[in-house]
Specification:
4 helices, three-stranded antiparallel β-sheet, 5 strands, 131 residues, alpha+beta, 47% helix, single chain
Length: 131
């Protein structure tokens, strides 16, 4: 009788754990396709007036708000106002470096961070366009 109870309890634990794992994966994957379907509009930084521009992108856990500083036709700083959940700061900083080295958007996404790269670029696009 004790062995049956232990096996049932263990089986129930494994079932609950598996269900939670599936739900967590589904949550983390949610919105990825929508973000990847986005298009980054070309923006020439040289066409922009000097200043600090704020942009936001809203898409589940990929939502973020950034401040972009333009000086003499170049992005000189990208400051995170509100960051996305579950980010890789090193990859984020590499993307921002690429943006600051570029003459405009889009820039190449960071390998293994394509979705988050797109979400950050959408916030930059939002900051630098009049829409």
């Amino acid at each position: 009788m004790n062995t049956k109870r232990i096996v049932r309890t263990l089986g129930l634990f494994v079932l609950v754990f598996a269900a939670l794992a599936v739900m967590a994966i589904a949550y983390l994957m949610r919105h990825q396709d929508a973000v990847l379907d986005e298009t980054i509009r070309p923006i020439a930084f040289s066409d922009l007036a000097d200043g600090v521009y704020t942009g936001h992108y809203e898409r589940g856990r990929f939502s973020n708000t950034l401040e972009i500083t333009i000086e003499s036709g170049h992005v000189t700083n990208v400051r995170v106002v509100d960051d996305m959940w579950l980010r890789d700061e090193a990859k984020r900083d590499l993307l921002f470096y690429r943006v600051m080295q570029a003459d405009g958007l889009p820039v190449d996404a960071i390998s293994e961070a394509t979705v988050t790269s797109m979400a950050y670029m959408k916030a930059i696009e939002d900051a630098l366009t009049d829409d």
